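Help!! Second protein's tokens look totally different from the first
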Amino acid sequence: QNMDSTLHYIHNDSDLSTNSSFSPEEERKSKVQDVVPQALLDQYLSMTDPSRAQTVDTEIAKHCAYSLPGVALTLGRQNWHCLKDTYETLASDMQWKVRRTLAFSIHELAVILGDQLTAGDLVPVFNGFLKDLDEVRIGVLKHLHDFLKLLHLDKRREYLYQLQEFLVTDNSRNWRFRAELAEQLILLLDLYSARDIYDYLRPIAFSLCADKVSSVRWISYKLVSEMVKKLYMASTSTFVTDLMSELVEKFCRCRKWSGRQTFVFICQTISEDDCLPMDQFA
């Protein structure tokens, strides 16, 4: 019951004190809470001490990162100030495994902290992970929809410009990365307007439809069919007409047989999923 109630704590602005001129005494007080024994929390926070990694366990920072969302849930968002410094330390840890662990759980932490704390403290860390190694980026990519849906609309739209960057990976043979991107884009269609879908997501979808790997292409056909459905249901019908014209131009009239085959598969998916009335399809 206590753990459930921590998700409903009202955010208090006084918890967000970011005054960098704290005295050591004030710094210590900023880590004090009354949910768990203070000695237990102090022991947990000390896991990020570099000397402990050398003398106790080289994996200790990774264990600390793995447990952090659970600790945050237990303490509640009103005690986030106790964990904030530790979280930022872990997010900049030299070991990519530590950063990867945080990247996979940042969406869960956002639910616990609420929109204000997420925008102030988690978004900068999230932005850093987007530019990290592929092993870290895959963590935020796998839960991209879960994280972005928690942000305000204006903040969410800022990421439209960065989605294209997911097409570039450290290793071009990492096709699962692009497959995951296609899966996430299907979910992201619900978060953006018809114009945003047409302007930003359409070019990425078309690029994925021409991918060298069959598994990526098959997910992309589903993405395009869902895009057609979404744009058809939007009040402005010009977007769906323009999209279908481009499908004909780009794939149906393609010189390569693979492009023409792609057009057939997209048509099949649109037809099977009832994305359009049959007269419109015709």
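Here's the second one for comparison:
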Amino acid sequence: YNVEEEGGCDDLDQGDNGWKIIHTDVFRFPPFKSLLCAVLGVGAQFLTLATAIIVMALLGMFNIHRHGAINSAAIVLYALTSCVSGYVSCSFYTQINGQRWVWNIILTSALFSAPLFLTWSVVNSVHWWSGSTQALPATTVLLLLGAWVLVGFPLTVIGGIVGKNRAGSFQAPCRTRNIARQIPPQPWYKHTFVHMAIGGFLPFSAISVELYYIFATVWGREHYTLYGILLCVFAILLSVGACISVALTYFLLSGEDYRWWWRSVLSTGSTGLFIFVYSVFYYRNRSSMSGLVQSSEFFGYSLLTALVFSLMLGSVSFWASLAFIRYIYRSLKMD
């Protein structure tokens, strides 16, 4: 305020602009903490499950002529890895000063299992109504429900309790002010939808070729055997998602916008939307499916697949962005 109008105003605080000037707001905890932590926990669970499935297939533990073997292994691993989602979710929820940790465990447990049960109920009801042999009998339904009640949910609770007790501090390099800083108007290319389009398309382009063979195996009569290539593509997918998330987060912070928490999840998590759009393209142009039974099953499970990718990539991109932000602001504090 003491600088004269004629001199030196443009040089005032020349070094404190962009991402440096919001160092007192960048670690301000976001809204909907419980939902964010549940997304991170379930995403970590699916990351563990997908890696285990690919490694088991690479070791030759599945018969290529029996698709049901992978499905059975996925169901068992989903129940056993529920402790991962509970631990990650409740641990981070405690770090960001969450208080309703019981509700957080319930939300984590139901975030994917509730859409899965709803989708399966609709698809199976269509099968029963049409008299299809693909409908699961009541005994199988009770067996799967018992596996979740007796194994999946208790492991989520146990993992959540362990994560809550072992959670440390958030380790923010910078102190957060009580009053939030005003965010300046952002250009159109820094809006959420633009970042979601960029952050979703690039990871999808890395797996688009492999998706065709996977869809042809699941919904066609092909046999997939290139699990080594699948592991490489999976690693490329995670790497591209993490790098894109870091770049988009840096662009966001450069515009003095500190609302990166949910943006980092949505930017790369939008890959699931592209996968669902591809499934629509595959249904119309690459498959010969038709009718209510086949359509309901295809689109129902395609929606679940898109949700899995969104949760998994959203979790990876968030942790990558968090590590990047901690690194740059720790360096700023040292200077």
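Reply: Different proteins will give different token patterns, so don't panic. The CA atoms of residues 91 and 166 lie 7 Å apart.
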